[in-house]
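User: I'm curious whether this sequence folds into something compact or stays loose and floppy. Could you predict its structure so I can see for myself?
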Amino acid sequence: MTPTVCLWRHGIPAVFQHSRNARCATLQGFPASLSESQCSVQETLYRSCRFALFIAVSLPLSLHSRYMPLSPSAVKRVLKHTRSIQVQAYAREDGLWDIEANVTDIKTRAAHLLPGIRPAGEPIHDLWLRLTVDLELNIVAAESVSDSFPYPGGCDTVGPQYQQLVGLNLGKGFRAGLKQRLAGIQGCTHLTELAQVLPTATIQAFAGDVIDTVDGRQADGRIEMPFQLNRCRALRTDGPVVAKFYPRWAVANADNKRDDESPIPLQSASIRKLA
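Assistant: Here's the prediction. I'll summarize afterward.
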């Protein structure tokens, strides 16, 4: 059974089906075969269609046993608002990476904003942030655009502020630097919040491509503890997961000094080139 995703545009339902084995979705009214650049569901739905209100995915029962959904609500409820965040990472031919993030806020009712009424299903916010980083997580370029926003002449002027992120490092002190440069009236609340997810999102993108997460083997042959160990409860070095999957690094008492703000060791020796 193919997961079916229901979308609404101005109260009119549309349907597309997304195969887990396919690289792109087939949207009713769109060609079944798209180029790789067109295969981005994000770009197809938000940039081309501009009508995603909510997404309800129907999965085969066999797949539900593989996931841990939230428990059913004990009371009847109605969907009123959806905030969606999506991050995509692109490896560039010049050796840099583009990390692109998008946040949308969409209501199921017409929103009575001071500048006017925003129809149900039209985004209140549709904000974009792109950071270009090198292999050591240094930000070398930054760009932000606001496609939908509540206050024309205000929200749409803040984009250039985010060029101040250039020079920060996503693996060391990023959130402190972000707060210092763009908190409060210095930036956009939603873009600044969006930026806070980019350190871990970028590390996830680098894992297996740029960073060896298996045994901590460095480019010069040295073996060091994989960076992800002792950064969360599941991967504490005195826990059962590390004992099973990383036995080399299993200990009786874990070092609890690492946390989400601890520097990520990405010296040149620990980085391997992309294939």
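Summary: The chain is about 15% helix and 25% strand. The chain has three domains: 4-64, 81-200, 207-275.
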